[in-house]
Amino acid sequence: MNGSNKLRLKGYLHNYLVGPLILTLLLILLNIPMYMLDANAGFLMSCGLLVYILIAVSYYYTKKNSVLNELVTFAAQYGQVQKQLIMDLEFPYAVLDEAGNFMWFNRGFSDVINKDSRGYHKSITTVFPELGPERFPKENGEEDYYFRYHERDFRVHVKTISIDSLMDNADVVERVEDAHVCMYAVYLFEETELNYYIRKSEEEMMVSAVIYLDNYDEALESVEEVRRSLMIALIDRKITKYFNDLDCVVKKYEKDKYFISMTAKSLEDLKTMRFSILEEVKTVNIGNDMSMTISMGIGTNSGSFVKDAEFARIAIDLALGRGGDQVVLRDGDRISYFGGKSLAMEKSTRVKARVKAHALREFMDSKDKVIVMGHQLTDVDSFGAAIGIYRAARTLNKKVHVVVDKPSTSVAPLMEPFLNNPDYDNDMFLNCQQAIGYMDRDTMLVIVDTNRPGYTECPELLDMAETIVVLDHHRQTDEVIHNTVLSYIEPYASSASEMVAEILQYFADGPVIKNIEADAIYAGIMIDTDNFVQKTGVRTFEAAAYLRSCGADVTRVRKLFREKLPVYVARARAIADAEVFREHFVISACPADNLESPTIVGAQAANELLNVLGVKASFVLTDYDNKIFVSARAIDEVNVQLVMERMGGGGHMNIAGCQLLGCSVEEAKEQLKTVLGEMLDDGDI
User: Fold this and answer.
1) How far apart are CA 120 and CA 187, in angstroms?
2) In terms of CB atoms within 10 Å, which end of the chain has fewer, N or C?
3) Do the beta carbons of residue 470 and residue 480 sit within 8 Å?
4) DSSP-based three-state secondary structure for 502
5) How far is it, in rounded angstroms, from Cα 230 to Cα 284?
């Protein structure tokens, strides 16, 4: 049997060739009626039908082999054409074996990598070092990778091709047992131009910014009147030239406010320069005793330019709430801080305190009850501020409760005079669960000494209260208490107790403060200022003088804070075990054994360590209640708030802290050292 007889047609082509033979059946059926009509005609048709059948059968068998030969020839030629088309295709394409080695690639791929496809069977890592076989997709998957090769951007699409079925039918090679065999198809998509225009579009995206002069009035008052216009002109020129050089548009719309329109590229340039305008403005000096400082709020990536402007407004409010002299960037839902290295300027006017006092009274008048809450682990300042709000509400004959969940050893002596005292209700102090039961629609919630919802003594109350007031002296962060009807946050204040003491002077013509209440508020100021040596201003001493006139006794307060011997021993051990980091930073750990309030002892140790010569900042870590509490203290050269914010905490420039979960004291020390090292190297502190 020859080779041609080993092949036969099937399918549509076979049906097409045998079609004439099949039609003979129809002709035979038609021949039968012809005999009925006319025998001669029927016979003549039969002869013609016989000739037709002989020709059809002969044609089928003689032409079948020719058709097969033509098909084989066409298939071979088509395969060559197809191979040539793939080889000449401008689209870069390659085939890799399972180990990632080149098996074949077309001319387009060859032009990209500048290699000859013949005999080049090296790994793809010779072209894209990051793309090894371990990164290839598995089980008929496909994946995109992005690389830069010879100054060109490529999207590399890798697709897994299983050849198990081909291997099963192959006669030349076979699989080892049940091994899975696959190849990888690699496609290259050049995106250099696309990425260029994407970057161009991103760089030209509009960004809104607002600049406020923090201490405009105070700085002008420190210079001669005839030179004030010159100072203003120098500040205007400094700001305008700085931003014009960065391709920004500056528009001054009030005497101390500027609106800036810039591109995203200009914003990146500002970040690279670390917003040096903050320091450059301070260099303007024409005899003024006080340097001018600025705050800047930036909004971007909101989806529209109008929303960017709103983001900028929110950012500038946050910058001012944190004490000014800094930049706050609102990038979508993310907030970043820059600067903030100088102390907040104390305002000499009390107009704001008077306005806030009147607003607080109006809100209290509209409610039947008031619940006052501080931060977790209530300290002396939080307690003193709460007592001041208690007295203000009682002056309006309101029912008042103070939330103190777990009184610490520092707060217990201050609470004792109020307990079992006929002048005060038995339910004056509530724990968290009791406070939840007391909260209703006619109750106002006042939060003191914190502005972060997660740090409050009883966070559940925030969702229950309809009227919330916040009074705090810590700088704001992006974590804020929402739905507040009144927010009075002044980072320049030494303590929340100082702020409350000022409010009391303008509240209901000055409420009558009892001695033990004055002691509590005075103690709050004294503790947060470390006996009036830290973060004190004129208004701090004025508030202390007011409390002294209300009956606060310094000797009585001092006796309240006498400590037990284990406290002294623990504090001394923390000081003795201190280690110096990068010459000017001291890090230590405070033992928590046999101490009722180890975090307070740690804070005291941090204050003591500042008395060491050459120390710019101190950090004391305390392992307590399955958390690592970090107390950070500084005098004036380092903003420890920025350090603590990097670690998830906050505070203000001289006094800050954070809480760490899921780590040991040693791990927390290493984390702190890493943050300090990075910030020092980057010039952030």
Assistant:
1) 17
2) N
3) no
4) helix
5) 10
Proportion of the chain above pLDDT 70, given as a percent: 88
| HSE-CB of 62 using CA atoms within 13 angstroms | 6
Cα 566 to chain centroid distance, Å, stands at 42
The neighbouring-strand residues paired with 148 are 153
What CA–CA distance (Å, rounded) separates 591 from 629?
Answer: 12
Three-state DSSP at 489 gives strand
Indicate the DSSP class of residue 562.
-
Is-contact 675 658, C-beta < 8 A? no
Which among 598, 661, 664 is positioned nearest to 631, based on CA atoms?
A: 598
Alpha helix ranges (H) inside 577-664: 598-609, 640-646
Could you say which DSSP state residue 11 is in? Answer: T
**Bridge partners of residue 456, in order along the sequence:** 375
**Token code pair at residue 511:** 């409420």
Name the pTM for this structure.
Answer: 0.54
Give the chain's mean pLDDT: 83
Site of tokens 């004391």 = 620
Residue 46 C-alpha from the chain's centroid:
94
* Range 651-683 burial, b when 16+ CB lie within 10 A, else e: bbbbbbbbbbeeeebeebbebbbebbeebeeee
Give the containing element (helix H, strand E) for 94. strand 93-96
* 450, 472 Cβ separation under 8 angstroms: yes
Question: Which position has the token pair 């420890």?
Answer: 640
Extract the tokens encoding 544: 């202390």
φ and ψ at 503, to 5 degrees? -60, -40
392-424 pLDDT, tens digit per residue, is: 999 888 999 999 988 877 788 888 889 888 889
pLDDT digits (tens, 9 = 90+) for 633-675: 988 788 888 898 888 888 777 888 898 988 899 999 999 999 9
* Nearest CA-CA partner of 409 in 558, 564, 596: 596
Given a contact cutoff of 8 angstroms between Cβ atoms, the answer to whether 620 and 634 are in contact is no
**Which residues on adjacent β-strands are paired with residue 665?**
none
Q: In this structure, which amino acid lies at residue 109?
A: F
DSSP string across 99-137? TSBEEEE-HHHHHHHT--STT---BGGGT-TT--GGGS-
Please, which residues have CB within 8 angstroms of residue 555's CB and are 6 or more apart in sequence?
Answer: none
Q: How confident is the model at residue 1 (pLDDT cuts 50, 70, 90)?
A: very low
- The alpha-carbon radius of gyration of the chain (Å, integer) is 42
Q: Which of 267, 261, 272, 265 is closest to 199 using CA atoms?
A: 265
Phi, psi of 487 (to 5 degrees): -130, 115
Burial group, residue 74, by CB count within 10 angstroms (0-12, 13-18, 19+): exposed
- Which 3 state secondary structure label does DSSP give 621? strand
**Within the chain, what is the greatest distance between any pair of CA atoms?**
148
Query: Which of helix, strand or coil describes residue 610?
Result: coil
The encoded tokens of residue 32 equal 């039968």
Q: Are 55 and 30 in contact (CB under 8 A)?
A: no
Q: Say which residue the tokens 């002296």 belong to.
A: 473
Q: Which residues contact 378 (CB under 8 A, 6 or more apart)?
A: 386, 404, 405, 406, 407, 408, 411, 457
Q: Which string of DSSP letters, residue by residue, matches 225-258?
A: GGGHHHHHHHHHHHHHHHHHTTT-EEEEEETTEE
**Tokens 């925030």, residue located:** 462
Through-space distance between the first and last CA atoms of the chain, rounded to whole angstroms: 94
Tell me if residue 624 falls in helix, strand or coil: strand
Q: Do 388 and 534 form a contact (C-beta atoms < 8 A)?
A: no
CA distances from 532 to 323, 522, 526, 618 (A): 20, 11, 6, 19
- Give the C-alpha separation, 559 to 565, whole Å: 15
Report whether 551 contacts 559 (CB < 8 A): no
Task: Supply φ then ψ for residue 427, to 5 degrees.
Answer: -100, 30
